[in-house]
Write a structure and sequence with these properties.
By secondary structure, the protein is an alpha/beta fold. It contains 21 helices and 25 strands. It folds into 3 domains: 269 residues, TIM Barrel, CATH 3.20.20.150; 146 residues, 2,3-Dihydroxybiphenyl 1,2-Dioxygenase, domain 1, CATH 3.10.180; 201 residues, Roll (2,3-Dihydroxybiphenyl 1,2-Dioxygenase, domain 1), CATH 3.10.180. Bound molecules: magnesium ion (2 copies).
């Protein structure tokens, strides 16, 4: 499989773009004329620079407003084409994209367009160049790849072929399966882009909101499967116009692009087993069976605060690492590791972020296969020396710099608590806590799509539609990824303003990502009663909230009172019910949550986020007023956060 990306997809000057594209592993580029018009060297120099990066120019674009013109426009269009051909020869590329005419001067008629393309093909052939014709979704007469194909078919010239673009096909709601009837050797080039479904002007949508395949709502896999079924053997190229990407890090965006292409072609191979896809084999998307552990990095003082808080939720000291300053606290099926080592990854994480979640352990069927798939997708495996008698647990670097470890039954990795830890007999009270329901991660809004792609390509998960959660100080964009079994649930919260709690959390912890961990309870009222005995400081919810939900859901007095007296938030979806209770905020905005799902409720209580935000803000003000400021700054030493909208 030959991979390519349009230079317009990423930020930077041409040199930066090429370096990032080459480093991400692409084979080629589509070059945009503007990219080298702004460059201080001629086309020959650009071509040399591209080749010096080990890349190939697989397409030159765009050549606009060509076909169907009356004279004298027509003669001038051919003249313009010859000048483009000159540039292409100097660049060292043989294929030009001719997009369907948008000019008011253009005349309709398939035969007229075919005649023009045939003549252009004739001129191109003299120079050993090729013409690829693409239907723009907003073309004046041609906006459907089926019409574009008919024009190419009638042009009947070996140097004239079709270019298909997933965005244009989906923008016009054309069934991509219609591509299957086109001969693969007449498709000269394939451009791929995804996009969120937004009802707006097509041109504006296209120029600002395209995303990498897998980051939006279009079925790019079905599109690519249809193209692959034709026997198409050319490059698979990303053409992404996105304001955010143009402002992002060239390296990160290029890496996302390459990852999205590999995952896409892997998905095509799985959905179309009879089609040969030229891509090294890799394990299928990984099913996560549950969260094995959450690991915090801390210093001794802050570890004491943390373990006190864990104790207030009934977590007992369940073990100590055989050789390291690493302790295990457990309750129900939840394992929390607290790492106060003075070296290694956790210590680096502590120095960078203060007390933070530095590692997430996930249970999978095959830990080795998980790392193998991650590596095939361009993720770095992580290795740290292990001592004698310790298990070597497969791990990767997660997208925010944190670690992810994977445990499985088959290789005995689930036994790490017995092999690596000296267990304590301390019995933990029955709190009704069973497992980790979800993990809430916070990142800058610009990075949300990167995180999303990381999870959706590695794991067998679905993403739910993106929600805007209102924080009084700004917006938090919230996107959930989860699997059908409910054994993997992550809420990703993209903060666009520093003044939101999510934004504050990011800036104060220098990018630490896990902002909350939610435990699942089998009986929230039992858990609430137990928490009252263990001294848990819970978030107090306003009386107005309970009056509101009583009216909204028609709850009876006794039930409402039970919720209110325990500060339990409530939500309902059909027959499903959801109960949430929160710890107060710690440090720069971290919190624990305890939830119960009943009757198949599959959401996260988004409707409650504003009420909870207000409560967190009140609790913080009190906390800040009572805090002892003599301790050194850290995420856990009670710095004041502002408000929260993240769910
Ligand atoms: Mg295109
Ligand atoms: Mg939550």
């Amino acid at each position: 499989m030959k991979t390519s990306i349009a230079t317009v997809s990423i930020s930077g000057d041409l040199r930066e773009k090429l370096a990032a594209i080459a480093a991400a592993g692409f084979d080629g580029i589509e070059i945009f004329e503007n990219d080298f018009l702004a460059f201080d060297g001629g086309p020959r120099e650009v071509g040399r620079m591209v080749r010096d990066h080990g890349l190939e120019i697989v397409l030159f674009q765009p050549f606009r407003d060509f076909e169907g013109l009356p004279e004298p426009h027509r003669a001038r269009a051919f003249e313009r084409a010859e000048r483009k051909f000159d540039v292409m020869e100097e660049l060292g590329t043989d294929l030009v994209l001719v997009c369907s005419n948008v000019s008011p001067a253009a005349l309709g008629g398939i035969d007229r367009a075919a005649d023009d393309l045939r003549q252009l093909g004739e001129r191109a052939a003299r120079r050993n160049l090729r013409i690829g014709y693409e239907a723009l979704a907003w073309g004046r007469h041609v906006w459907d790849h089926r019409d574009a194909w008919e024009i190419v078919r009638r042009a009947d010239h070996s140097n004239v072929g079709l270019i298909v673009d997933s965005f244009h096909t989906f923008a016009r709601k054309i069934d991509p399966q219609s591509i299957r009837s086109i001969p693969g050797d007449k498709i000269f080039f394939v451009q791929l882009a995804d996009a969120p479904l937004i009802d707006m002007d097509l041109l504006y949508w296209s120029r600002h909101f395209r995303t990498m395949p897998g980051q939006g709502d279009l079925d790019v896999t079905a599109f690519s499967g249809a193209v692959a079924a034709t026997g198409y053997a050319g490059p698979w190229s990303l053409e992404i116009f996105n304001d955010q990407f143009r402002g992002g890090s060239p390296g990160a965006i290029a890496a996302d692009g390459h990852r999205s292409l590999v995952a896409l072609m892997d998905a095509v191979r799985r959905s179309e087993p009879e089609i040969a896809v030229e891509l090294a084999p890799m394990p299928a998307p990984i099913t996560v069976q549950g969260v094995e552990f959450i690991e915090f990095a801390a210093n001794e003082t802050e570890a004491a605060d943390l373990t006190k808080m864990l104790g207030s939720m009934g977590f007992g000291h369940a073990g100590r690492h055989i050789a390291k300053d690493v302790d295990l606290y457990s309750n129900g099926g939840v394992n929390i590791v607290v790492n106060t080592e003075r070296e290694g990854f956790a210590h680096s994480a502590y120095r960078m972020h203060g007390t933070c979640v530095c590692d997430i352990g996930l249970r999978v069927e095959d830990a080795t296969a998980t790392v193998e798939r991650a590596r095939a997708l361009g993720t770095e495996a992580f290795e740290q020396p292990v001592g004698p008698g310790e298990l070597k647990i497969p791990a990767i670097r997660g997208v925010g710099g944190g670690l992810m470890h994977f445990t499985d039954d088959k290789s005995g990795l689930a036994k790490m608590w017995e092999t690596d830890f000296i267990r304590r007999r301390e019995t933990a009270p029955d709190m009704g806590i069973t497992h980790i329901d979800h993990i809430g991660q916070t990142m800058n809004y610009e990075e949300l799509l990167t995180w999303l792609l990381f999870y959706t390509t590695l794991f067998d998960v679905e993403k739910t539609p993106m929600l805007d959660v209102v924080d009084p100080a700004g917006l938090v964009r919230s996107q959930v990824i989860q699997n059908d079994q409910g054994t993997m649930r992550f809420t990703l919260n993209g903060a666009d303003r520093r003044s939101t709690l999510a934004g504050h959390f990011i800036s104060e912890s220098f990018g630490s990502s896990v902002q909350h961990v939610a435990f699942a309870s089998s009986d929230i009222f039992k858990t609430a009663a137990a928490l009252a005995r263990t001294g848990f400081e819970r978030l107090t919810i306003s009386a107005n909230y309970f009056a509101d939900i009583q009216a909204r859901f028609g709850l009876d007095d006794a039930f409402t009172e039970a919720l209110k007296s325990s500060n339990i938030l409530y939500d309902r979806d059909g027959d499903g019910e959801y109960f949430q209770l929160y710890s107060t905020l710690y440090g720069d905005g971290f919190f624990f949550e305890i939830v119960q799902r009943r009757g198949g409720y599959n959401g996260y209580g988004a409707a409650n986020a504003q009420f909870r935000t207000a409560a967190q803000k009140r609790a913080l003000t009190t906390h800040a007023a009572n805090q002892d400021d003599s301790r050194p700054r850290s995420t856990w030493s009670g710095r004041q956060a502002t408000t929260s909208g993240a769910r």
